UniProtKB/TrEMBL annotation, chains A, B:
Domain Aminotransferase class V intervals: 6-373
Pfam name, any one: Aminotran_5
Protein name as it appears in the record: Cysteine desulfurase IscS
This protein's UniProt keywords: Iron, Iron-sulfur, Metal-binding, Pyridoxal phosphate, Transferase
Cross-referenced InterPro entries: Aminotrans_V_dom, Cysteine_dSase, PyrdxlP-dep_Trfase, PyrdxlP-dep_Trfase_major, PyrdxlP-dep_Trfase_small
Superkingdom of the source species: Bacteria
Cofactor: pyridoxal 5'-phosphate
Length: 392, 392
C-alpha cells in the first residue's frame, strides 16, 4: 500500500501483521513437513501444530479438540450449518447476516429457514426471534458483529433465551436439539471472545480479518454437537475437514489471535479516539448532515458507517479514491456484484439512503493524522457533490 | 530442515521454493486488499489474481475460467465428485487411489462405486475398467501418478476408451454423461500436463506437492461439466467455492507451476541419475535383495518405492531417522493411523511384503551425494536388521 494513501476498509481485509508473517516464515521452508509423517521432525511439527491450535482455542476460551481448522470463515460457516444434515429441521438467521450465512441457511435447510428482524440500529429483535423459533428449529445463526454496521449482538441474552426454549422442549418431550452459531469474523481484533460467556455452541473465527493470513479459519464446536464433513479424505480435523494441515497458516492465525488479545484495550482506546475525532470533523464540515448508522452503544469501535442522504456513495468513493482514500459501501463480495445492501435495507433505510451510505472501518495501519485528513477529505467531497446536485 | 539430514519424502510434502515465497511476500502486506473491493488497488489486485490464475491454467493447457481455485487437493477432489450430485449414478475408481478419492467416491455416490483392478506394477487394468463401466456410470477417477508407487497411468488411453463408451451410449439413446477425473497432485513437478492430451474432463492439481504453499489447489473443469458448490457464500470461483480469494497462495501456486515447467527436463534428468545410482548402491550393498516396486517404464522419476521382504519397514524408518534419513512407508495420512497400505495390497504384495516396504521420493533439496549417502545408510540398516533377524 502506498504510504500516502489512507485505507479505511479494514472490515474487508486486513494486512498480515509483520510479527505474524515472521512467525509463519520458518514453516514455509525448514518446517515444511507433512505433520502426519512418522519421522521425528514431522512429529515435532505435529506437536507445534497442536500447541498453536490450543493457543488459538484459548483465545476464545476453548480447548484444541473443540476447534476444527478450516480454509476460512465461509467454510467454517458451511461446516456449522451441516448440523442440518445431522438433524433435518428449521433454522433461523438474522436479516443482516453475511452472504456465507444467508446462502448456507438457504442451502443446508433446503429453504426451511426464516429471518429475524433487526432494529433500526441493527440489533436483533428478541421478541421476533422468540416468536420465530418453531418446534423443529435446530440452528440459530447470528453474527456477533455485523460486517456493515459493526453492531454487536446481545449473544448471551440470545443464548439464555435459547436455554429457556430447550428447557420447555424437554418438558414437552420434544428432543429436537437447538444450537446457537455465531459468525465472529469481524469481532476478534477488538472483542475478548469467550465461548462460555457468549453461550454459543458453534463459533466461526477467521484469520484474515485479524491481521492473520488469508485461507484459514476455525469453527468452535461444543462437545456433543454433531456435524457432517465438508470434505472427505485423509480424516484430518476429526474427519470433518480432510486435507493436509496448513501449518504456516495456523501458526499465523494463532499468532494473530494472541496479538489481538494482548492489544485489545489499547486498540479499543485508539479507535474510540479515531471515531470521535472523525465524526466531529465530518459534523463540523459536512454541509449534508451525516446520519451515523449502527448502534452507538453496541458498536465495534473501529466501525463508522455513515449515510449522506441524497448523495451517491459510489461517486463519493470514486472521488475519494482519486484523493487516496479507500473505503467501501459495504460487503466487498456483494458490492462487486452491484447488489443493494440487504443490511441497510433491513434496518429500514430507504433506497435513497442506502445509495448514499459509506462504510468506514479503521485499522492498525491508520494514524490519527490519517483519520483526520480522511474526515476533512470526505467532508470536502460530500460538499462538492452536494453543491453539484444543488442540495446546498 | 537441518542440513545434515536427508529428506526423502517429497511425495508427502515439499518445502516452499524460495522464489515462490519471494513472489508471495508482497501479497501478505502491501497488496492485501479484498480483490472484490471497488477501489483501484483492489481492482488491480483482482487483475493480478486473474492473470496469475490464467498462467496457472496455461501450465496445464487450460484457460483461467476453466479453473476453480480451492483450499487444496482434497477439496478439489471433493468438488470433482459433486458431479454425482448433479447426476445420480455409479462411479469407478482404481483400487490404488488416495483416501481423498476413495472417501469421496464412497460418500458422493452413496456407496454406488466400484474399484478397478491394477497390475502388479500398479497400472490400471483397462479390460477390467471397460467391464466395470455400467449403464449409469457417470464418473471415473484415476490418479495420474500413484502417490505410493509413482506409477503413471495411461490416461489418454483411458480417455479414448471412455470416448467409445460415450459414442455407444449415444447410439443407444443413453444420455448419461461420462466424465474422467484425475488427481494429478503428484505429477506437476515432473510431467508436462495438458488437459487436452490427457483427455480429462476434471483435473486436480495441488501447490503443496510442487514447492508451492499449502492450503491451495485447483480443479480444472471442462466446459459443460456441471458441479455443485463445496461452500456457499459470496459466490467466488463461479459460485462453486465461496470465500475471499487467497491471493498470496494463488500467486505462490502459479509461480511454483511456472518454475516446475521451466525445469521439467533438467529435473527429470537429475532424478533419473539419482534413481539409477541409488538403486545401484542398494543392489550392491544390501544383503536382502530389494524388490523395486511400481512400473519401471511408467514411473515418475523421483519415486523409488522398494520392498525388503522379511524386514519391518517401521523399524528401518526408525533406525534411519536416527541417522538423519527421513522417509516413509506410504501416504502420511494413512501411515499416521497405522493402516496397512491398500495400494501395496492391491498390487498383490503379501502382508509380509507390505510390512517390509519403504517409499523413497527425491526432491529439490537432495544432492547426488545425499542420495548416495542415504543409499549406503539404507543398505547398512537393512543388513543390520537382516542379521538381527538371522535372515542372512
Amino acid at each position: 500500500m502506498n504510504s500516502n494513501n489512507i485505507y479505511l476498509d479494514y472490515a474487508a481485509a486486513t494486512p498480515v501483521d509483520k510479527r505474524v508473517l515472521t512467525a509463519m516464515l520458518p514453516y514455509f521452508s525448514e518446517k515444511f513437513y507433512n505433520p502426519s509423517a512418522a519421522y521425528l521432525p514431522a512429529k515435532h511439527l505435529r506437536g507445534e501444530y497442536e500447541t498453536q491450535k490450543g493457543l488459538l482455542a484459548n483465545a476464545i476460551g476453548a480447548k484444541a479438540p473443540d476447534l476444527i481448522i478450516t480454509g476460512g470463515a465461509t467454510e467454517s460457516i458451511n461446516l456449522a450449518f451441516t448440523v442440518l444434515k445431522q438433524n433435518t429441521g428449521h433454522c433461523l438467521i438474522s436479516s443482516i447476516e453475511h452472504a456465507a450465512v444467508r446462502e448456507s441457511a438457504r442451502s443446508y435447510s433446503a429453504g426451511n429457514f426464516d429471518e429475524v428482524k433487526v432494529s433500526t440500529t441493527g440489533l436483533v429483535d428478541l421478541v421476533d426471534l422468540r416468536q420465530k423459533i418453531k418446534e423443529d428449529t435446530i440452528l440459530i445463526s447470528i453474527a456477533l458483529v455485523n460486517n456493515e454496521l459493526g453492531t454487536i449482538q446481545p449473544l448471551s441474552e440470545i443464548s439464555r433465551l435459547l436455554q429457556e426454549v430447550r428447557e420447555s422442549r424437554l418438558k414437552e418431550g420434544n428432543l429436537t436439539p437447538l444450537y446457537l452459531h455465531s459468525d465472529a469474523s469481524q469481532a476478534m481484533s477488538l472483542l475478548d471472545l469467550s465461548v462460555a460467556r457468549l453461550g454459543v455452541d458453534l463459533l466461526t473465527i477467521n484469520a484474515a480479518k485479524v491481521y492473520g493470513p488469508k485461507g484459514i479459519g476455525a469453527l468452535y464446536v461444543a462437545r456433543g454437537v454433531k456435524l457432517s464433513p465438508v470434505t472427505f479424505g485423509g480424516g484430518q480435523e476429526m474427519g470433518l475437514r480432510s486435507g493436509t494441515e496448513n501449518v504456516p497458516a495456523l501458526i499465523g492465525f494463532a499468532t494473530a489471535a494472541k496479538l489481538a488479545k494482548e492489544h485489545l484495550a489499547s486498540s479499543r482506546r485508539q479507535y474510540q479516539d479515531f471515531t470521535r475525532q472523525f465524526k466531529q470533523i465530518i459534523e463540523q464540515e459536512s454541509r449534508v448532515a451525516p446520519l451515523w448508522l449502527g448502534d452507538p452503544k453496541h458498536q465495534l469501535v473501529n466501525f463508522v458507517p455513515v449515510c449522506f442522504k441524497g448523495l451517491d456513495a459510489e461517486r463519493l468513493i470514486f472521488k475519494l479514491e482519486d484523493l487516496g482514500v479507500y473505503l467501501s459501501t459495504g460487503a466487498a463480495c456483494a458490492a462487486s456484484k452491484g447488489q443493494k445492501s440487504h443490511v441497510l435495507s433491513a434496518i429500514g433505510l430507504s433506497d435513497q439512503e442506502i445509495a448514499g451510505s459509506l462504510r468506514v472501518t479503521f485499522g492498525q495501519g491508520n494514524q490519527l493524522e490519517d483519520v483526520k485528513k480522511a474526515a476533512h477529505l470526505i467532508a470536502e467531497v460530500v460538499n462538492q457533490e452536494a453543491k453539484r446536485l444543488k442540495l446546498v
